[in-house]
Design goal:
The chain has eight helices and nine strands. The longest helix has 14 residues. By secondary structure, it is of the alpha/beta class. Helix 7 links the parallel strand 8 and strand 9. 22% of the residues lie in helices and 17% in strands. The protein has a single domain, classed as Alpha-Beta Barrel (TIM Barrel), CATH 3.20.20.
Length: 252
Amino acid sequence: MAENSKIQWTDHTWNIAVGCKKVDSDCKFCYMYRGSLNETRYNPMVVRKTLRNTFNMPLRLKEPSKIFVSSLTDVFIEDIDNFRDEMWNIIRYCPQHTFQILTKRPERIAKCLPPDWGHGWDNVWIGTSVGSQGSSHRIADIIMQTTKVNINQMFLSLEPLHSEVIIDHKLLALFDWVIVGGESGNETGKYRYRPCEIQWIERIVNDCKALEVPVFVKQLGTHLAKELNLKDRHGGNIDEFPINLKIRQFPV
């Protein structure tokens, strides 16, 4: 739960809770569950609010930062309904920061926003994650939310990419930002990784370039790291990427 994050597209990770419930096959090897194997303090399927020092983390940061909200749970899961307003209060008091919220439950966004959301908060980005064509319905789900509420920066995380995802260009063009990455995991045990093909990532990057949608290649994943003999076991070092994938853009 450290303030500084190893996630390439953010500066800090802010965990308001720990624990989640899997939604579909994209969640199969979730790193939160994988990390809990070495933990005896909590059940990963039980959502628990973090302690005050962790929960109030953004209030301590002076430098304007990008903050990924809760990598160890889903902000819009029902279990957080009774203390989500506390999260919104902290975001409200920190206009200098940019808060990046990523959910697998976009159908719940509208009912979980604060009453003063209005035309959207400039410092809040909201996105959904898709790892396979089978879960691509979430793309339509989050776009549908824009007809109910205003999301000033809407993004799409195509990670962990474990099958080819083909997105209609009209839908893709509606996003302000796209992240793409292969799956990381262990070689043995319960939480491994699924293959990601370089062509899948290339297609997404090329589509984003054609539509002028900022795209961020986060990592190639463990499978491609082994296949390409990369030093970074999860394929997250951009210096080792093929030249056409060395792209890490942010929305304007």
